[in-house]
Every structure is written in C-alpha cells, then in structure tokens.
Amino acid sequence: MTSELSAIFVEPSDDTPLVWFDISIGGGAADDPEGIEGLHRHAGLLARRGAGRRDRVEMDQTLDALGAAVEVSVSRDALTISGMALSRNLDQVFALACDMLVEPRFEPSEHEQLLRETPQVLDEIRDDDSSLASRWFDSLCAPGHPYSRTSLGTDSSISRIDRDRSLAQWHHEVRADNLVVGLAGDIDDARAHRMAAELAQRVAARGHRPALTSPSFAGLPVAAPRGRRYVLVDKPERTQAQLRMGHLCLGYSHPDIPAMLLAETTFGGMFSSRLMQEIRVKRGWSYGAGCALRRSRKPHWFEIWLAPGAAVAGEAAKLTLDLYADLAARGPTDEEVDFARSYLVGAMPFHSATARQRMQLAVRDAVLGVPPGYTTNLPQLVAQVSAGDVRRACSTHLRPDDIVTVAVSTASLIQDSLPTSDGSLVVVAHDAY
Amino acid sequence: MGRRMTVRRYRMPNGLRLICSLDREAPIVAVQTWFGVGSRHERPGATGLAHLFEHLMFGQTEALGPGEFDRLVERTGGESNAATWVDWTHYRLTVPTRDLALALNLEAQRMSQLVLAEAPIEAEREVVMNERRERVEDDVDGSLDEQLMALAFERHPYRWPTIGKMDDIKRVTIDEIREFYRTWYAPNNACLVVVGDFDEAQLLSLTSAAYGELPAAPLPEEPALVEPAQTLQRMIRLPKPIATHRLLVGFKAPSLSHPDWLPLDIAATILAGCSSARLQRRLVIREEAASSVDAQLTPFRDPSLLRIAITCARGHDADEVMRILDEELAALHLDPPSVAEVEKAKAVAETDLWSTLVDVDGKAEALGHHQTVLGDFRTLMDRTRALAQVTPADVARVVHTYLQPGQRTVVIAEPSEPEDTDEDDADDTDGDTDADADADGAVVKGDPQHGPRRGAHSPGARA
User: Judged by CB atoms within 8 Å, which residues 370-409 of A form the interface with B?
Assistant: First the structure.
C-alpha cells in the first residue's frame, strides 16, 4: 500500500503562535449508501470520541488542557479533521488526530449515544428556519442526485447506521493516497513534512481495507427535474418566509466556471448585484438576498436565497424568478460584467490573506479535483472572460423554467401568494424531513 | 497582538484618535471606525435608532450618489460591513493597500456629509424590520436573548434590544435620525483603526487631509447608569413552536474593566466553555439531558451578564436541567476548581485570544473594541499577562460573588402545542411572565447587530 499522501500543503507564518491543520479524507455525504445517509458523519464523530489509548472524555480533557481543538466536518465530497493548537503543543495534538485516523475505537457505547444524539441535531435544524430551508432545498433540488443526500441523515436512515459498517467505511477511506493534508501557521516546511510523513507511514502500516459499496457517482448523470416546482414547508407562527430557489448546475472543474462566477457575482454576489438592489435596496423586502453556485466536485446547485416578510413573500418570489429568467435570457450587460470582473480580481487577496486561508484553499482545490492553485489563479481566468462568454454561459447553464422554490413559512400566510401554476405546489409539515 | 506587532496611537486636534499597526502578510488594509455610541445612548420609545442609523451610513453623501459608496468599495474588490451593540457602533472597510486613500475619504465623508433623505430611510426601515423578523420574531434564540435582557435589567439601557422594538423601528422620525447623527457622529467621538500593509507617513498625511477640517462636536454628558442590585431570581416561560425546551440563564456579572471579569470568564469556561467543561460532561455526555450547553460572559462597558444557554434533549425538560445546573453550581461553590482545571481554562482562553488576531480585520476589531469600551487599546496587550495571573482562589472567589441564584434571571422556551394559526397571532411572540419584565419583551442579542451586509445566522447576508 502506498505511503504517499494524495497531497500536502504547507503555509508557514509566525505572526501568531498558532498552527492549523486540515486532514481531508476523500468520500463525503454523497458517498453515504442509499438509505444509510449520515454514515460518514457518524463515523467521523465516532473517531473523535475515542482513539488510541484515550476515550472521549480523555480526548476532550487532553485537547482542552493544551488549549487546542480538533473537530470533524463533513461536506458532500470529503470528511475533514481540522485542528488548531499552539505551536508548542502541536505534536501532541497532531498525534491525537493521527490516532483518530488509524486507531479509532468506535466504542459501542459511544455509537449508541451518537445514534441518540443525532436526531436532536435534526430538532435544532427544524427550530432554525434558515437551516430548515436549506435542508429541504438540498433534498428537493435534484432528487436521486448524490448531493441531495443530507450529511446528517434522516430519522430513519440514522436508525439504520451500524457500528461495524461505520468502522469498515472508515478503514476503507483512510488510506494515504486518499488523504489531503494541510498545515499553516507557526510551523516550518521541514517540521510539517516530517509530521505528514509520519502520518502517512502510520496509515500505510494498517494495510488496505476493501470498499463496501460502489461510489455513489457511478450512476451519474442524474436527470435534473423539469418544470417549476414549489414546496411550502409549513411551520407555525412565522412572520416571514425563508426562500431557497435553484436547480442542478455545474461542478467546480467545469471550463465555464470562470464565466459562471461572473454571472453569479452580477446576479447575487455583491451588494451592488441585481438581486440585492431589486429585493433589498429598492423595496426593503429582505435583509439579505444572494446566490451561489455551490462549489463541489460534481455538478451541484445554483442556489438563490432571501427571507422576505410573509406579506410580500409571493411578490418577492415572483420578482426573483423574473430576474433570474431575464439573466438566463439576456445575461448581464457589458458594464455589469466589467464591474464584477473588477470585484472578483480585486477580492482574491482578501480570500488568501492569511496562511490558514491559503492552506484551506489549497486543500479544498485538491478535494474538488481541480489543479493546484486553481482557485487562487481564478482571477487570471476571470480576466480573460468576455461579456459574451458570460451571456453564453448563462444561456447554456441557467434553467429558470426548471427551478424548485422552497419556502419555510406558515402556509396559511403565504400559500395563496406564491406564483404557482395549478398542481405545482406541495405543502409539507416542517418536521416531516 | 501579533508577536512582532507595534501599535501606534495618535490624536488629531479635532479629537479623532488614530490607532495603527503594520501587518504585511497581504497587500490589504483594514480601516475601521469605532464610534462611542450604541443602543445604551437611546431612550425608551426610540430604541433601535443606533442600529437603524448604522444601516443609513452606507447611503448617499454630499459628494456620492445613492449606491455609489458600495460601488466604489466593490470595484476595488474590497469589503464593507458594520455592527452595532450596546456600547458602540463600528464600520469596517477592507481594501487593497493602493485604495487606502479611497477608504479614508469614504469614511471621512460619511462621518460629516451624510445625506438623510426620506425615501432611502423608509426602504432601510423595511430592511431593518425584516432583519428583526429574521433574528428575533422567527428565531427562538434571538427571542430568548431579548427576553433575558428585558427581565434582567430594570433601569439600565441594556434592557432594550440593540435592533430595537418593532414599534420603535416603525415610529422613529427623520428628525430624530438627523439629530442622532449631529449628536454622535463627530471626530471626537470616533477612533480610526488601521491595520495592514501601509506606509505610516502616508497614512498620517492621508488621515490629516481627510479628517483635519472636520469640527469636533459637543458630546452629551452621559449620566451614570446604575442598575439596582438583584436579590431574587427572575423567571419567564415562553411557549414556542420548537421541538425541545431551551433555557437561557443570566447571572449579574461585572463590567469588562473590572478585575473580576477575567476570573469570571475562566469560571464560565470551566462550567460550559469547552468540550470537557463540567456542564458539558454532566448534561450532555453523562446524563444526556441536554444536546448543547454554552457559556458566555458579555464584554460590556457596564456590569452585564454571564449567560448560560442550554438546549434540552428529547424527553428532558427545563425543570430537570435547572435542577442539574443548580447541583453543578453548588458543587462549584463547595468544590472549587483545581489548579489543573483553571490552567486548562486559561489555555483555552489563550488560544481563543490568539485566534482572534490572525488577520487584519481581527486585529483592528480587537484594538477598536478595547479602545472604545475600556478607553485604552493597551488593555489588549496586557490580556495574556493578566490571564497568566489568574489563580484558582480568584476563580473560587468570583464564583461565590456572582454565581448566586438570587442574582440570576432565567428564560425558558417550551414547546407549544400545535394549533391552527392565523394572521392575527403570527406576530405574537410574547409569553406569560411571572416577573416584572417589559410587557412587550425587550432584547439585547447575544451578539452585535451587524449591518447591512453581515448576518450571523443568515445565508441571505454576505459576510
């Protein structure tokens, strides 16, 4: 088995005595087996709850005593162990993270407790309208697409998570050539590479474990749903509507990404963008209004969000759809593209100003399958895109007639105002998913 | 501060203070303007004025048309934002170094030449009302925060919400807004903080050119605001459409400048501020009675609260969690924290402190906050030394002084029974109280009210 890491990135800076590290493991929520959504998150959190000679309590005590933190996060494409420590304590903290990778305990008692805890996170999401809207939108944008799988899981899928299955998934994915490692801060190249090499050797020494399932994307492409759909997530006592609108679009490695970033920026990426101006500045309808093309390895959503008061939710949804249709049909003007280009090119230094930011960008690029330095070099690519290119990209990739609109609100307040056609509105209870 | 950082402070003849520090990690510069005005300077009936005004500061000036401020900043790739809280309001611009002059000129213009016209005020009033709906009316934690401060404070302006009461946001007049601007927005009530990659001589020259002609203004005398001592527990229960019970407990706590603040912050960490904290282990891990617990000591100019927030687990209620909380507090009184426990909390605090200072915005914010709230940014530099000197005896003493049941206020959100709703009751977020709180429920959020771009919980606002 190879002891070569998939990639390692080091960004030294001795501005503060802190060091950050990210260890990304290829395979995320999109790779959860169908019906067992939440598996990757469950496995990652179990690893954080006991590894090597330490149980959960001992891990917590050790990290707190060092003033350090080690956390697990799961995206659609990867699971990441992120750490922060004072430089003088880094060796101990990084070793603990390595224990999580190669010697996770997956104690049955912790497994059972986590199975009890996770549905409570679902409760917290249901109590938060913005999170709830995003959760429903993700599930409905392109049903059947691996990115529609929630990283948290559902009440039923969580109940099907098996401890041995979790451990097997972990052992299969934790292999050196599936790890991307980044370190930044008060650390030099030599120390960082020594630590990464030791990690790779420990991982390689475990040997290889076979996969239990086929990659989720084996079945792509998923046919994107056609037609406009409306889903009203009914929740009592709301005074506004959390709106999410969008459709399946592009992956981050697509050659039209630079043009689409300009389109995204002109429509909802700045305060001066169309959406913010029309929804907020002119009408005061929502505190925020924006859009984003989700950055992922495979085609993901183009998503719009706003939160208008219930009294204007229907008008706001209709105006947003009209604005989006206009963008798709005519694209941004030359002046808008020039302005967005200036913004994007000028903004890059802010996104890469600190060693930690540069490291995280590099790790993310590797996870997303784009060449090293792709994101930091995007301004050069954006600079070469013409307004005509942006309009062509809008025409090709924006699909205003196939948008799903998800609204979290009190149904009786906004149901009649949504710009639906007959039969296109579905009302669901807010705790039904 | 950063290990090798040098911070310099200047004062202009018109009273404007300038604090600057070099950081050459990237060719950018953070320009922040901190005004010594927040929601504490409002009056009942005009709450939310400081925050509403903050929104208006991105509008038209005598030299700039509507929207031009944002376009000038965004054309550089720069970022702008603002925040208002009880003691202060601050505005932030982060721009490429080559645009430092632009940033200073924009800030100086809006400090003195803002045009306050009726139409944009009305549009922004709607925006703020929607912000309030998002952060308070439709947000259980925001609603709890508001109720906690309203109940905990009887006289101090901390009792009303920084975002303002809905009726006040609707009512405030254009004359009041203009008067607020004339009263508080003057160079002698501001601190300009510049951190990043710049030439200091050029910065001084540009600052002098941009601000030198602005006149100082007579600032109102601030009355001493004394909150009566609290001797009895206060409690309120609110029905909410939520899945499980939530609690917010606030103990009266000292001001940020008080010597007890830091030991009490350590006590908060020991209780609920890290993954091995006492309440975390008891409530979340051992008894599984709560799904989350957190503690926060508010960094205010006047005495405020140590807040403990708890979300109950399924099948457990607020009364059970309160009983466990009381047991743990009693244990903390009887069994003071050990040396190891205090050292652990100090290590967490040290890392937290450094992690706020990793970029130019964080450094500028820390400097501006300490200068504005404590009157001297050097208190920030003393922080690590002061932290090292905290002893277990200090922590035990502040636990006995402040964490007393009679000095606490408890706000509980309970799941309401599902029922039909209609438009008439959709706006009704008040609950029944068993204490003498403002009937319409006031709030100070647990976090600052951010300005037009930033939303702590909303993807609809840009960070």
Answer: none
In this predicted structure, the answer to whether residue A178 has a pLDDT above a threshold of 50 is yes
CB B310 within 8 A of CB B293: yes
The CATH homologous superfamily to which domain A229-429 belongs is Metalloenzyme, LuxS/M16 peptidase-like (3.30.830.10)
A14 contacts chain B (CB < 8 A): yes
Indicate if B212 and B251 belong to the same structural domain.
no
Judge if B156 and B286 occupy the same domain.
Answer: no
**B74 vs A68, A85, A343: nearest CB:** A343
CATH number, domain with residue B108:
3.30.830.10
CA–CA min distance A273, chain B (Å):
10
A354:B244 CB<8 A: no
User: B188 and B120 in one domain?
Assistant: yes
Helix (H) or strand (E) holding A8: strand A7-12
Distance CA A330, CA B222 (A): 57
Tell me whether A265 touches chain B (CB under 8 Å): no
Residue A425 has pLDDT above 80, yes or no: yes
Q: Which residue of B has its CA nearest to A13?
A: B25
| Statement to judge: residues B299 and B196 lie in one domain | no
Measured between CA atoms, how close is B252 to chain A, in angstroms?
A: 27
pLDDT average, residue stretch A226-231: 93
The per-residue pLDDT for range A42-95, each reduced to its tens digit, is 999 999 999 999 999 999 999 999 999 999 999 999 999 999 999 999 999 999
Search chain B and give the residue with CA nearest A346. B77
Q: Residue A3: pLDDT band by 50, 70, 90 thresholds?
A: low
Q: Answer yes or no: do B157 and B282 share one domain.
A: no
Optimal mutation site among B276, B363, B449, interface A, most CBs of chain A within 10 A: B276
Distance between CA atoms of residues B264 and B271, nearest Å:
10
Closest-CA residue of chain B to A87: B351
User: Quick check: do A7-205 and A229-429 share a fold?
Assistant: yes
Fold of A7-205: Cytochrome Bc1 Complex; Chain A, domain 1 (3.30.830)
Q: Is residue B186 part of a domain?
A: yes
Low-confidence ranges of chain B (pLDDT < 50): 420-446, 451-463
Q: Which pLDDT does position A212 carry in this prediction? A: 65
Contacting residues of B for A350, CB less than 8 Å apart: 26, 28, 77-79, 94
A236 preceded by a cis bond (ω within 30 of 0): no
Q: How far is A201 from chain B (nearest CA, A)?
A: 30
A221 to chain B nearest CA, in Å? 29
Cα B264 from Cα B157, distance rounded (Å)? 23
CB contact under 8 A, A285 and B126: yes
Structural domain containing residue B129: 7-224
| Least confident range of A125-129, A144-148, B173-177 | A144-148
Cα separation, A269 vs A86, whole angstroms: 36
In percent, how much of chain A has pLDDT > 90? 90
d(CA B10, CA B211): 13
Residue A250 has pLDDT above 90, yes or no: yes
Residues in chain A with CB shorter than 8 Å from the CB of B347 are 64-67, 86
- Residue indicated by tokens 């995003």: A134
**d(C-alpha A374, C-alpha B440), whole Å:** 53
Sorted by where each begins, the domain ranges of chain A are 7-205, 229-429
Give the model's pLDDT for residue A2: 59
Number of A to B CB contacts under 8 A, please give it: 242
CB atoms A307 and B458 under 8 Å: yes
User: Would you say residue B453 lies in a domain?
Assistant: no
Residues A14-46, buried b or exposed e (16+ Cβ, 10 A)?
A: ebbbbbbbbbbbbbbbbbbbeebbbbbbbbbbb
Chain B interface, mutation test: which of A112, A271, A412, most B Cβ atoms within 10 Å?
Answer: A271
Same domain, B200 and B299: no
CB B75 within 8 A of CB A339: yes
Q: What is the pLDDT of residues A298-355, one digit of tens each?
A: 999 999 999 999 999 999 999 999 999 999 999 999 999 999 999 999 999 999 999 9
